[in-house]
Design a protein that fits this description.
With about 210 residues, this protein is of the alpha/beta class. The strands form two sheets. Strands 5-6-4-3-7-8-9 form a seven-stranded mixed sheet. The chain has a two-stranded antiparallel sheet with strand order 1-2. A hairpin with a 2-residue loop joins strand 5 and strand 6. It is globular and about 60 Å long. The N and C termini lie far apart (about 45 Å).
Length: about 210
Amino acid sequence: MKRDLIPPPVVWRLSLYLRELQALAGEGVEKISSRNLADGLQTTDTQVRKDLAYFGQFGRRGVGYSVAELIRRIRQILKTDKVRPVVVVGAGDLGRALLRHKGFLSKGFEIVSAFDISMTRVGTTAGDVPVRHLDELQGFLRQFDIRLAVLAVPPQAAQDVCNRLCELGIQGILNFAPISISAPAGVTVRQVDLTAELEQLSFHVATQ
């Protein structure tokens, strides 16, 4: 099935299924039913089966799913069965925290470099990841055929940096800047607004 015919919530739930399955594999679980998988994620077994059906046949009725096989198939669908290189633009406090995070590689992503314009940051490392000057971005992206980038820049710089990344061939951007950015067709932007998420939690806690 073509990617644009798959509802975005389905793709999002695949990531949730994958996390749950990886946790179960770590506990030594080898088989799981759609109902057990659904219970762990507060959804329904019908929803699990419907989501997976977009991508083919999984498991057997009455037998369930092989946890290892389902992990393998979902990673193939999400294109994380091979390590994908990622760059981070912005090496301030948030950017450096991302660079130090050790969990990306096991999930199929390797942060290969960070870029910044501050000369106090350029030439340093964070979590063994080098910080290069933004002027080196174009050559680096082309040399290593990188398609994914994380934005951790101040809000006033986010759109300009986004535009530059798109011009250089980046196709997926994870934006941590607390501002919405736009990208041309063919480039997917995902927004991570930590303050907005805390505001939502504050509202729900206050109204309970």
